[in-house]
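Closing statement on the adenosine-5'-diphosphate sub-project.
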Amino acid sequence: MDVASAPAAIELVALTKRYAQGAPAVDSIDLRIGSASYCCLLGPSGCGKSTTLRMIAGHESVTSGDILLENRNITLLPAAARGTAMMFQSFALFPHLSALDNVAFSLKMKGVAKAPRHKQAQDLLERVAMGHLAQRKPGELSGGQQQRVALARALITQPRVLLLDEPLSALDPFLRIQMRAELRRWQKELGLTFIHVTHSQEEAMALADTVVVMNQGRIEQVGSPHQVYNAPATEFIARFMGGHNVIETHAGKVAVRNDHMLITPSGDGVDAMFGIAGTVTDVEYQGTYVLLGLQAQDAGGAKGVSVMLPEAQFTAQPYATGDAVHLSWAGDSAHALSA
Ligand code: ADP
Ligand code: MG
């Protein structure tokens, strides 16, 4: 079966959410999310990520359109009957319950007897390497351990699709990077489909098989991290992903990665060639790289652009604030942007 005809874990068809008068929060989006893949919904605050996730979860009604899970239309099903589960941030654990009882909680609500629900919860805690801490309360666990309990709690309903809304945002930066690696590993080990909402392009690129970039209730681009970063479809994406210069050439608007920019001192003979003139405004040492900020003159007027130079290249040919330079790029480094 080819990819196009394989059943998607989740398929959204013209999915729309309108809260009140005005622009819809989610505006007729179409999306197929492959089975056993890690999908990140990425975009700035207010672009409709959480609304999309909550509609998939069944925590928010749909204005129009459909949601299919493995070809089954779940649009009108109650949350518990969908085959999805939401993993909440670790602080959503019940503080007065042990890790075991937190994980077993939804089975208790379903009326499952104590012995079998504790057995299932213990099994899941073992799976996330937390079996030995089953009797601890959340307050007696580290942030990372709490996060694993939260995962086990979400998995106890045996979902096909796990939904995560900014699950790492409450963690400190160090733990966030550690936990995102764990999430990625769990997703692969469990063979489940994860749909993870984030406003961090770095987090999405680190985690996702598929990045879905959203803007104002719409999907702007769907692709691998490599595709979205290397060939941003729109100016919005080029700017949102960062690390790109948006440049107006006489042929149209293009995005060029700042580590793909070519820079030479002005007046060394290449000025007459293709490119634009610029002046260095900032020099920032970043270890492996040196980041130059510049004012450049493109067809749209003076603009701030940046150039990322490998440290060795900068050492061989240093630049300082005020230097006049010539900027250019190889033809295949420039990606045309649609409006
Ligand atoms: P994101 O998760 O990308 O930050 P949301 O899905 O939370 O965005 O919100 C999308 C838009 O819908 C925003 O304009 C937000 O203000 C609006 N919105 C979200 N939830 C509600 C609600 N319950 N009632 C009314 N408007 C809402
Ligand atoms: Mg949100």
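The mean pLDDT is 93. With this model delivered, the sub-project is considered complete and its resources will be redirected to Aim 3.
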